[in-house]
C-alpha cells in the first residue's frame, strides 16, 4: 500500500524509501554511487551524450545541482568565473548567480535569476531538503538576485526565455533542456539530470561552431 500510494503521488524514490522505513519495511530502492560498477552503462550513456552535444555546452547535475560531469564546451558559459567556484563539487546554481560567477556576464540577470530561484524554491519546498533550503537562502543574499519568477508584463517575448551572456562586444544567447532517466529504479540515478544548452540564435551557433572549425 505504501508503494502504491507513493507511485500514485509520484513521490521521489528517496522519499519512498523513507516512507517504507517509517512503516517498518526495508527500503525498496537501491542507491548506488555513480562510480560503482553497476552504474557503468549509465556513465557511458552520459559521456556519449555530453560528447555528442559538443560544440554546445552540457552538464550533469545531482539533486543539489552539483555538477558531476560536463563537456569541454562548458567553457563558453563559465568564462571569467572565479576558479574557486568551479572546484569540485561545483554547484550550477551558485556558479550562475554568484557575483564572482556568471552574474556579471548575464545581460538579463533579473529575469534569469528569478527563473532559477523560483525553480530552486519549488524544489526545496517539495523535498524539504535542508541542503536545497540553505542554497536558496545563500543565493537570495547575492547582489541583484531576484527571487520571484519573471511576470507576463516583464517585457519577455517569444516562446522561451534565453540566458543572454556578454561575449566581448557581442552577446551569446542560450536556451536549455533538462533530461532525466525515465525508467530509473535507483535513487542516485533518479536524481541525476542532464542540462543541455542550445544556441538561441544563429549568431551564437556560429560563434560556438567557429571554436571547432
List the helices and strands and how they pair.
Blueprint: H1 2-8, H2 13-22, H3 40-53, E1 58-61, E2 67-70, H4 75-78, H5 92-97, H6 109-127, H7 130-140, E3 163-167, E4 170-179, H8 187-190, E5 193-199, H9 202-210
Helix pairs in contact: 6-7
3D structure, described in words:
The protein is of the alpha+beta class. The protein contains 9 helices and 5 strands. The protein has helices at 2-8, 13-22, 40-53, 75-78, 92-97, 109-127, 130-140, 187-190, 202-210; strands at 58-61, 67-70, 163-167, 170-179, 193-199. The chain has a 5-stranded antiparallel sheet with strand order 2-1-5-4-3. It is globular and about 60 Å long. It starts with a helix and ends with a helix. The mean pLDDT is 90.
Instruction: Tally the beta strands.
Output: 5
Outline the low-pLDDT stretches.
Answer: none
Q: What is the number of helical segments per DSSP (H or I, 4+ residues)?
A: 9
Helical amount: 25-40%
Amino acid at each position: 500500500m505504501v508503494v502504491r500510494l507513493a507511485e500514485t503521488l509520484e513521490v521521489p524514490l528517496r522519499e519512498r524509501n523513507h516512507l517504507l522505513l517509517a512503516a517498518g519495511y526495508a527500503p525498496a530502492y537501491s542507491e548506488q554511487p555513480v562510480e560503482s560498477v553497476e552504474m557503468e552503462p549509465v556513465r557511458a550513456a552520459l559521456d556519449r551524450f555530453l560528447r555528442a552535444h559538443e560544440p554546445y555546452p552540457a552538464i550533469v547535475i545531482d539533486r543539489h545541482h552539483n555538477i558531476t560531469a560536463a563537456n569541454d564546451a562548458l567553457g563558453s558559459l563559465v568564462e571569467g568565473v572565479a576558479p574557486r567556484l568551479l572546484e569540485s563539487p561545483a554547484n550550477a546554481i551558485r556558479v550562475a548567480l554568484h557575483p564572482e560567477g556568471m552574474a556579471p556576464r548575464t545581460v538579463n540577470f533579473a529575469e534569469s535569476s528569478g527563473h532559477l530561484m523560483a525553480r530552486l524554491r519549488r524544489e526545496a519546498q517539495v523535498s524539504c531538503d535542508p541542503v536545497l533550503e540553505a542554497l536558496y537562502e545563500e543565493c537570495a543574499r547575492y547582489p541583484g538576485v531576484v527571487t520571484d519568477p519573471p511576470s507576463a508584463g516583464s517585457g519577455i517575448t517569444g516562446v522561451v526565455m534565453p540566458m543572454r551572456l556578454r561575449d566581448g562586444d557581442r552577446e551569446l544567447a542560450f536556451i536549455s533542456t533538462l533530461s532525466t532517466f525515465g525508467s530509473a529504479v535507483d535513487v542516485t540515478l533518479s536524481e541525476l539530470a542532464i542540462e543541455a544548452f542550445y544556441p538561441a540564435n544563429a549568431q551564437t551557433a556560429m560563434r560556438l561552431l567557429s571554436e571547432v572549425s
